[in-house]
């Protein structure tokens, strides 16, 4: 019997939450690999498909409604998790860090340029005197 806790890194769906559906990992290798990669859970990387299928689940919070036929709880074949995944946050954080770094460097460069012009003007004034 699989664990009721979602394997996606950062997901808050725990075994006690009975309101969120859980889905077993697919057995088809290509889809399985995509689920593992998108989960962000490195513990699943080297585990056999059958073992992951029997032991782990991914919750409904990671799938769009279009992944299910109307009126059904089961996922359609080839459904991929696209919502609330860990990698998207990491990319956003890295982008924000780069953005802040770029702005900081721009400010530092502008200040250095201003300082350079200030020093040059002092040197010119001293040499003129």
From TrEMBL:
<keyword id="KW-0238">DNA-binding</keyword>
<feature type="domain" description="THAP-type">
    <location>
        <begin position="1"/>
        <end position="84"/>
    </location>
</feature>
<feature type="transmembrane region" description="Helical">
    <location>
        <begin position="98"/>
        <end position="126"/>
    </location>
</feature>
<keyword id="KW-0863">Zinc-finger</keyword>
<dbReference type="GO" id="GO:0008270">
    <property type="term" value="F:zinc ion binding"/>
</dbReference>
<keyword id="KW-0479">Metal-binding</keyword>
<dbReference type="Pfam" id="PF05485">
    <property type="entry name" value="THAP"/>
</dbReference>
<keyword id="KW-1133">Transmembrane helix</keyword>
<keyword id="KW-0812">Transmembrane</keyword>
<protein>
    <recommendedName>
        <fullName>THAP-type domain-containing protein</fullName>
    </recommendedName>
</protein>
<dbReference type="GO" id="GO:0003677">
    <property type="term" value="F:DNA binding"/>
</dbReference>
<keyword id="KW-0472">Membrane</keyword>
<dbReference type="InterPro" id="IPR006612">
    <property type="entry name" value="THAP_Znf"/>
</dbReference>
<keyword id="KW-0862">Zinc</keyword>
